[in-house]
## 1
Amino acid sequence: MEKLQAMKQSMEESKSRLATITVEGKADGVTVVIDGNRKVKDIQVDPALLSEVEDLQDLLIVAVNRAIEAADKTNESEMGSKAQDLLGGMGM
């Protein structure tokens, strides 16, 4: 039971740490910043894009998807290493 509580606490610590890590996705004048927990923190748009609404929409989609992919890699790395640490501590 103690191992389970330790695992839960460790995962919560990882989530807290992931909230402090940010990654970016960029697409031709659009930058999206999200944290390691996949929460959008900021979107920057080059003012020149504001007159091209359809292009801007497409670029936002690309930038958000790239940022999510980067956050997924960060999240998987953090959680994977934490899981290995925990399983190693359980003798597995």
## 2
Amino acid sequence: MAIINVGSYSNLNTPLSKESSVNAKMNWVSVLRTIVTNRSFLILMVSLLLLGNESKLQYLIGNGLLFIGLATVGIPHGAVDHLLESGHWVSRSTPRFILVYLAYSFAMALFWYLSPKLALCLFLFYSSWHFGQSDGEQWGFGSMFSYLWGCSVLFYLLGTHYNETNEILKSISGVSMPFSAPIWLITPFFFVALYKRSYSYAITILWLLVSSQLPLMLAFGLYFIGQHSLTNWKQISKTLNMAHHKIWIYSMPFHLGAWFVLALFFFVWPMLNISSDYNRWGIFFIFIACVSLPHIISVQLFKKKSETI
């Protein structure tokens, strides 16, 4: 049986967001020097730029990376919520947990079917909240600034891909963004990172700047997998005091179930004739909305429970 260390849930280090105690004492010049001379980050930056925007090579490599990322940490990080309740596998309570999880997902799918516009607003709200809360815990933000950051990230990712975003929004809700986001919009947060002397925060902002020049799904996937999912995966491992491979094995029931539900979405949703504009990525976003809702509720309940211990 694994012991839950609830006090360490927001303390972590990841390859894309690794920050040592030394960095806390660095001045902003040192932060800039560290960012520029980080070899792995430079290699990654150059590799992304060399893919060529909307090229066949970028499509193959980019989607391959997204699939690998989703299979390794993207979906699994949200497929172990059942472990957060007790810290180990409880076979008797798992069926009940699955039924509750599916009920929340089905409720969101039904809501999207009945009122796509309101469902989209709800999805954007809790996604911004979840992203902001996760990053905010890592970087020591207050609740208001965390939500501001979450909203800014989501708007930046969507707004710098105005045409792609509107194609998806039109197909899943019949609405469109009224204006785009300029590339420089996220840069004020970079100066906040320098002020806070936060290496990982600055790296994430540079990630976002680069991602504005990549296709929407690759840009969103890089943030969702590389920052959000990987960060939370490390949190889960430390909280449960459990090895990564063991957590991944425990995630398999929900992990495989998520891929099955995704396949159903791609097969069933177009048959509902909700919109004449079929968009496979739009269906993928609806799937994310449906599986995200129970995940976020589960995480919030766990955090609330942790605060009372």
